[in-house]
Amino acid sequence: MSDFQAEKDLVRAHHIAIARAGADTITxxxxxxxxxxxxxxxxxxxxxxxxxxxxxDVFWRPFLHAMTKLQRRPDIFMAGLNEMDGFKSVWxxxxxxxxxxxxxxxxxxxxxxxxxMMRYVEFDRVxxxxxxxxxxxxxxxxxxxxxxxxxxxxxxxAHLVQPGPATHEGLMYGPQDPAKGHATLGAINAxxxxxxxxxxxxxxxxYAEELARTWNDDMIWWGPAGIGATYTxxxxxxxxxxxxxxxxxxxxxxxxxxxxxxxxxxxxxFGWANLTLVNSGGYMGMTASPNPADMRVVxxxxxxxxxxxxxxxxxxxxxxxxxxxxDVLARMEELxxxxxxx
Length: 342
Fold this sequence. Notes:
By secondary structure, the chain is of the alpha+beta class. The protein is built from nine helices and 15 strands. It has a six-stranded mixed sheet. A six-stranded mixed sheet has the order 8-7-15-14-11-10. The longest helix is centred in the middle third of the chain and has 19 residues, at 178-196.
């Protein structure tokens, strides 16, 4: 069993190179530890890119131009083998915030001149001493809301700059006990199996009983901006999963995960896209839509005593809404333009 130290060290070096780079040197910094055909998956409007030059042009250079004195502030760092390919590939995962001074416009969002903290999670596949594949999810609506430009109706959960794990043990830069990671992955898979076999005819009470099998009572669901965070099983049902099930049960299709792994008391997965759904109306203020829409999702978890206690969620909400006909970023661009009225 590998301790994944070489892969962890490589990704940490990659992050240091990015931190030292400016807008004019970011391409070289990205190329230092990635393969020539590096596959990068980002959220709307960036989507899939290939190679350091494309990733720099599309995401990093504009972001660095907008955010002065950027810092990466990780809360979780782990590595493990991917269950989805029979535990063959090694992935390193980092999650936290990218913090900077929002000094110039980005994606039509007007700068605040103040601290901006954007949640991020990054899955990096490492092969032969290079990062060959990355999935990087980040919470663009969080940046909008912090800058006073909230594009959404009132959300069901709380809007917060979200903390890291309650136990403060998420930064696993060194070797970990493999048995702990095995137990965490087992808890995640038990929860996923319950989701696949759920009996929706029992209503809310049946759903609460189902969740209690794999979640601790004081569970925390750290949801994305536009949905928000919620605490305890009853409030999770009321403030997220209940509205989700009512509005998005029609045409529900699970597409699978590309990576699922765990180390220590932490683990998670991502898909591209995890789910395809039809909005029957009301979800996030949207009217009913006949268009199936994809949800690209990352879930990270903290396990405690055989059950799940914390869950950090990243959803490409802008892509999900765009597939239903609402281009949030285009609307931001329109609102940021000077009025043509006399």
